[in-house]
């Protein structure tokens, strides 16, 4: 179920941020006519918590040695990773998000570490590249 102000106990701004993450993440598979928004929408609260309150990173210096690494191994939730990279200021634009799962885009259906700043590991379809 989607949180409403009646059942959410945190700050209103926090809920607005989580719902924005959900909406931006859901738009990607919808515009690509490929994929499912369930995982990104369901994982939005923990992504918000990690990226806003816990992780250390620098969108201006994506290879900063002391950064925390966000590794996401499932393709059907990668829209969430692209959303978080976009909102955190990495070189992932709104136009890049609209090109989700399109040939030649920096937002493929399975994130590639050599293609998109902020993507730490290429795991491939169904986790086939997890050994890297």
Question: In short, what is this structure?
Answer:
40% of the residues lie in helices and 0% in strands. It contains 4 helices and no strands.
Amino- and carboxy-terminal Cα gap:
37 Å
Strand content: under 5%
Rg, rounded, reads: 15 Å
Low-confidence stretches: none
Order of helices and strands: HHHH
Mean pLDDT: 88
* Helix run count: 4
Blueprint of the fold:
Elements: H1 12-32, H2 38-54, H3 78-87, H4 94-98
Helix pairs in contact: 1-2, 1-3, 2-3
Structure in words:
This protein has helices spanning 12-32, 38-54, 78-87, 94-98. The chain has four helices and no strands. α1 packs across α2 (38-54). It is an all-alpha fold. The model has no long low-confidence stretch (mean pLDDT 88).
Name the descriptors.
single chain; 132 residues; mainly alpha
């Amino acid at each position: 179920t989607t949180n409403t102000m009646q059942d959410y106990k945190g700050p209103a701004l926090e809920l607005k941020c989580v719902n924005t993450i959900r909406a931006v993440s859901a738009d990607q598979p919808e515009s690509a006519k490929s994929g499912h928004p369930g995982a990104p929408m369901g994982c939005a609260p923990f992504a918000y918590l990690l990226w806003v309150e816990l992780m250390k990173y620098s969108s201006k210096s994506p290879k900063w040695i002391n950064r925390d690494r966000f590794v996401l191994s499932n393709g059907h939730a990668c829209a969430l990773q692209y959303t978080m990279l976009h909102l955190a200021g990495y070189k992932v634009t709104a136009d890049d998000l609209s090109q989700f799962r399109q040939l030649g885009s920096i937002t493929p259906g399975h994130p590639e570490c050599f293609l998109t700043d902020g993507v730490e590991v290429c795991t491939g379809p169904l986790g086939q590249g997890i050994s890297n």
